[in-house]
């Protein structure tokens, strides 16, 4: 195991879940309560450079051009401790990370962020990890990062321990024109982060039913993806998202990630569906809506959304690649 003498730069793309990860079976190891399936997106990615340096007394972290105070970003420092432990080193590192997620896109960067950090830090530390091992490592930073190691459609196997919880590609070179339109209804920082939101949702009397439903959605979704059946893919994903959000409304205390514009976007998509278009919505731990559709209906969908949402609130994404080194 040799520490790299030059900076290692990795690039990872963000992903949106079609069957959501929502709930932890183990908070420390970040083991999820259920399997999940996502699509990695093309436009939105993070690049991260890591170089270990014997001169440093702490990790030196620059996030989108801003140097973090020594006590800032506990999550990144804890993640780096994990890498140091595995590589049997006590060296700190220079870490420089840039998020290429249009600020207007309203998409979370923790998935691409921790996937890129896992890739760059592991290689810089001289660890020669397989992609499965990288996905296990990325999981310790942020659950959804587990899936961003791979491109296209990806399944995260919940597993029961550190070893058995990893992601696997279902189809990395997607050759059908599936699209996701992000409707950015708000760019505000989310009030209830996903860690806290999941924990609170686990108080819902429906939480066990959510887990059952999510696991039951996996095989039908895999089949629908294989058959390139947009209506099956969309309806499973939409129903799954609604089941996830039902655990927030029924939590103690109850909460929701939706705002008025989220509901408006859902209604517009429902209208389009009743007009015969094949489009479905999904939402994560925030108010923004992602529309699942096919390329040849994107323009008609955008036309219908435009009176309510400006051009800068509508971002179209395609399936994207997994982790690469620059
Ligand atoms: O990776 P986290 O801890 O930010 O959790 C992500 C949770 C959802 O985005 C809501 C769902 C998912 O599977 O990505």
TrEMBL record:
This is diphosphomevalonate decarboxylase. Residues 181-311 form the Mvd1 C-terminal domain. Keywords: ATP-binding, Lipid biosynthesis, Lipid metabolism, Lyase, Nucleotide-binding. It comes from the Bacteria. GO terms for molecular function: diphosphomevalonate decarboxylase activity. It holds the Pfam family MVD-like_N. InterPro entries: GHMP_kinase_C_sf, Mev_decarb, Mev_diP_decarb, MVD-like_N, Mvd1_C, Ribosomal_Su5_D2-typ_SF, Ribsml_uS5_D2-typ_fold_subgr. Residues 12-167 form the Diphosphomevalonate decarboxylase-like N-terminal domain. The lineage of its organism: Bacteria, Bacillati, Bacillota, Bacilli, Lactobacillales. It is an enzyme of class 4 (lyase). Its EC number is 4.1.1.33. Gene3D superfamilies: 3.30.230.10, GHMP kinase, C-terminal domain (3.30.70.890).
């Amino acid at each position: 195991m040799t520490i790299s003498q030059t900076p290692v730069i990795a690039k990872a793309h963000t992903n949106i879940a079609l069957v959501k990860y929502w709930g932890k079976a183990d908070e420390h190891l970040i083991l999820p309560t259920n399997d999940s399936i996502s699509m990695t997106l093309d436009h939105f990615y993070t690049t991260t450079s890591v170089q270990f340096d014997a001169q440093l007394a702490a990790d030196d972290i620059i996030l989108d051009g801003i140097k973090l105070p020594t006590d800032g970003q506990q999550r990144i420092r804890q993640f780096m401790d994990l890498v140091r432990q595995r590589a049997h080193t006590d060296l700190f590192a220079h870490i420089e990370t840039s998020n290429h997620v249009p600020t207007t896109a309203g998409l979370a960067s923790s998935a691409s962020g921790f996937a890129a950090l896992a890739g760059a830090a592991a290689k810089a530390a001289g660890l020669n990890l397989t992609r499965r091992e990288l996905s296990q490592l990325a999981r310790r930073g942020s659950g959804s990062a587990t899936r961003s190691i791979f491109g296209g459609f990806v399944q995260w196997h919940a597993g029961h321990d550190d070893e058995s919880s990893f992601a696997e590609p279902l189809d990395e070179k997607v050759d059908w024109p599936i699209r996701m339109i992000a409707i950015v209804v708000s760019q505000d920082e989310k009030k209830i982060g996903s860690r806290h939101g999941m924990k609170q949702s686990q108080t819902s009397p429906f939480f066990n039913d959510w887990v059952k439903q999510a696991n039951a959605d996996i095989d039908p979704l895999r089949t629908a993806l294989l058959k390139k059946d947009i209506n099956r893919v969309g309806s499973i994903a939409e129903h799954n998202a609604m089941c996830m959000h039902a655990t927030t409304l029924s939590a103690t205390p109850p909460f929701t990630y939706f705002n008025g514009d989220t509901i408006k976007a859902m209604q517009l998509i429902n209208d389009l569906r009743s007009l015969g278009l094949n489009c479905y919505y999904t939402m994560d731990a925030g108010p923004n809506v992602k529309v699942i559709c096919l390329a040849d209906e994107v323009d008609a969908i955008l036309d219908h959304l435009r009176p309510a949402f400006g051009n800068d609130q509508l971002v179209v994404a395609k399936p994207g690649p997994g982790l690469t080194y620059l």
